Amino acid sequence: MQSKSFIFARTVFRSIGQIMLQENALTGLLFLVGIFYGSVPGGIAALLSAVTGVLTAQLLQYDRQEIEQGLYGFSATLVGVAMVFYFQPVPVIWIAVIIGSALATILQHVFIVKKLPGFTFPFIIVTWILLYVFHHLIIEPNSVAVVNEMIEKDDFATSIHGFGEVIFQDSIIGGLLFFLGVFINKPIAALYGITGAILSAYIAIHLSEPALDIEMGLFSFNALLCAITFAGDEPVDGIFVLFSVVLTVIIDIAMLRMQWSVLTFPFVAASWVTLTLKRWIPLPPKGIAPDK
Question: Site annotation (Important for channel permeability): which residues (predicted)?
Answer without folding.
Answer: 264
